[in-house]
Amino acid sequence: MEDFEHKTLTTRPHDLKYGYYLSPNFHKAQQSTPTLVICHGFPDDAWMWARAIPHLVKLPYRIVLIDILGFGGSSKPTDASMYNYRQQANSIAQVLDKENAPDNIIPIGHDWGSGTVQRFYLYHRHRCIGLCILSLAYQIPSSKPFDLDETNKTTAKRFGYPQWEYWNFLTAPDASQLMMDNLERFWEVNNGIYPSPDPEDKGRDIWMREMFCTPNAMREYITQTGKYKDFTVELRPYAKDEKLKQAYLDRMKRDGFEGPVCYYLALANNTMLEDERELCKAEDNADKKITVPMLYIGQTGDWVCRTDLMSDAKELGLVEDLEEKVVDAGHWCLYDTEKSEEIAGLIGGWLSKRFPAEQ
Prior knowledge:
Blueprint: E1 5-11, E2 16-22, E3 35-39, H1 53-56, E4 62-66, H2 85-98, E5 105-110, H3 112-123, E6 131-134, H4 148-159, H5 167-170, H6 175-181, H7 183-191, E7 192-193, H8 207-212, H9 217-223, E8 234-235, H10 242-255, H11 262-268, H12 273-279, E9 294-299, H13 310-315, E10 322-327, H14 337-354
Parallel strand pairs: 3-4, 3-5, 5-6, 6-9, 9-10
Antiparallel strand pairs: 1-2, 2-4, 7-8
Helix pairs in contact: 2-3, 7-9
């Protein structure tokens, strides 16, 4: 990514700055060459894609990597309503307009970046020719208010554990400060590995389930209290890289968590409900449907963004042209050099097959 050009744009109407990176060929490529718009998630920045970029940049596509709101070189408002998906989609569209990107966009996103590019497609579908999402499956627009407690009860019945339990910590008033005070412990929360002691699980990594889907677990681990007072998890091999960890520590010390947690607060407080209801008005679900070729990549070690959750959209007939892939990895596998190459290969293979372009 060192060869990419870093730029910023202050977007309207809220004067929010977006940082982004353009590939070296961005303004040299033919107008017919598709543009990959790549977004990261929580608690990352555009550099999360740095290990995949050397493989993706060899492909004949122009690339723009976005620091989504709250991270990296972008503004970090602490008003949750500023993290509205529609506003972010419009801001990304303004970046593309500034760079004269044609209407042949293929949004690609991981985690909250997946949610962001999904809504970019729904609000700017005329600009998109494809869609690729990692980890977070298609979040179907709903006209009903989001209720965290009810959602956790529902998922506990469906999956055997409350899928969004960790939101109770991340939306708590003291969460941002606790993470800041215990940055290394939060790094371990996200990047630990803990094989199940249950023989029936055959050694499957259950760390994410333990941290994210168990009441109070994330808080207790971060603060070294309760069950985790004297316990430190083993790190995944990539997470032992001191340079990688230090970059995370330096970035979060500089930027804080007050902005990033607003993604959770925005949905928990239903700040986007009216926009979601607009997407639900068409009787034939036309505004919910993804009609372009779509690639979904899940990870076996992701207990929150489960690999089977594209089934909901498929059963409702909302995805017309879907290809699904699963990687044997954890949620933050894009920090792993080997897994990044694998994921870049899956994306590149799909792009070359569905959107062939001249080198």
